[in-house]
């Protein structure tokens, strides 16, 4: 009887050990893809991550969206596999990457318009690029100067670590310094909330963040929409990128992920999030 009990106990131990070994093996095989970067590109990356993990259960994709500059720094320091960015890498970032033996490679995943937005009650419906520059450099301070009501302008900007800030500053301001009266916010969501709750506010968000709570204005006579962004007729247009260290090995999970935007499912997600696909399936 004792011998039988010993044999049963041994069998249970072997079975348990096998189960642990299998779990460890499965854990080792589960691949990780870490994404860091742009707040604007964040919704697309989260959509891609969810769809990709559903199709590939052995892959875990995590997304951290705090700013394009953070994404570039994480890729350069080897803290992420993919840097999501709403602007091109700066020369200083490239040089630091090369110093760290990192070779940044860009993959353009979508198009975006940086939409200038006002509170819906503001009667002003059109501005010129020169007027935008005047507002943000402090030369224009009251909506009455632009054909609106007698109300102080409250200019809002993304923080300087944002790719959206960098593109807006470069195109709309010719890289001139913003006035001391500009208020900075950390994300598209905060910008949207601040504009929607402040009658005199003016701000700018990615096209995927437009809704009825804010009013997009015409710039130089052009409204931001899929057609005007795709053709770059709208003045504030930019590409959205993901960056990798070198070109991913063909057929690898990382390669499949960064090429996901080329699939019909990927393009559907881009459009679903309010951005402009690169292809027309």
How would you characterize the overall build of this protein?
The protein is an alpha/beta fold. The chain folds into 2 domains: 31-110 and 240-272, Periplasmic binding protein-like II (D-Maltodextrin-Binding Protein, domain 2); 112-237, D-Maltodextrin-Binding Protein, domain 2. Helices cover 38% and strands 22% of the residues. It contains 10 helices and 11 strands. The chain has helices at residues 2-29, 42-55, 68-76, 91-99, 129-137, 163-172, 188-196, 226-230, 253-258, 264-272, and strands at 31-37, 59-65, 82-85, 104-118, 126-127, 154-158, 183-185, 201-206, 215-216, 218-219, 237-245. The strands form 2 sheets. Strands 1, 2, 3, 4, 6, 7, 8, 9 and 11 form a 9-stranded mixed sheet that branches. The protein has a two-stranded parallel ribbon with strand order 5-10. Helix 6 links the parallel strand 6 (154-158) and strand 7. The chain is globular, with a radius of gyration of 24 Å. Mean pLDDT is 89; it is low at 1-28.
What is the total domain count?
Answer: 2
Q: In angstroms, what separates the terminal alpha carbons?
A: 71 Å
Average pLDDT rating: 89
- What is the helix/strand order? HEHEHEHEEHEHEHEEEHEHH
Helix content: 25-40%
The assigned CATH architecture of the largest domain is: 3-Layer(aba) Sandwich
Question: Briefly, what CATH class of the largest domain?
Answer: Alpha Beta
Shape, per Cα inertia axes: globular
**How big a fraction of the residues is strand?**
15-25%
């Amino acid at each position: 009887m004792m011998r039988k009990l010993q044999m049963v106990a041994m069998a249970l131990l072997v079975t348990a050990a096998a189960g642990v070994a299998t779990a460890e093996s499965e854990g080792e095989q589960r691949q990780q893809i870490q994404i860091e970067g742009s707040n604007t590109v964040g919704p697309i990356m989260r959509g891609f991550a969810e769809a990709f993990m559903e199709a590939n259960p052995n892959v875990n994709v995590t997304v951290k969206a705090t700013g394009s500059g953070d994404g570039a720094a994480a890729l350069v320091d080897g803290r992420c596999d993919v840097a999501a960015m709403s602007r091109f890498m700066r020369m200083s970032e490239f040089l630091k990457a090369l110093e760290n033996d990192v070779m940044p490679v860009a993959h353009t995943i979508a198009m975006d318009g940086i939409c200038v937005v006002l509170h819906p009650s503001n009667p002003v419906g059109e501005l010129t690029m020169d007027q935008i520059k005047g507002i943000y450099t402090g030369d224009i301070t009251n909506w009455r100067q632009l054909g609106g009501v007698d109300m102080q302008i409250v200019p809002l900007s993304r923080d300087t670590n944002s790719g959206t800030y960098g593109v807006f500053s470069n195109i709309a301001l010719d890289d001139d310094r913003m006035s001391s009266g500009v208020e900075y916010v950390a994300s598209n969501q905060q910008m949207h909330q601040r504009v929607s709750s402040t009658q005199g506010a003016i701000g700018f968000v990615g096209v995927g963040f437009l809704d009825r709570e804010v009013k997009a204005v015409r710039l130089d006579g052009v409204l931001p929409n899929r057609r005007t962004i795709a053709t770059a007729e709208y003045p504030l247009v930019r590409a959205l990128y993901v960056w990798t260290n070198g070109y991913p090995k063909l057929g690898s999970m990382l390669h499949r992920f960064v090429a996901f935007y080329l699939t019909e499912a990927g393009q559907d997600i881009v459009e679903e999030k309010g951005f402009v696909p690169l292809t027309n399936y």
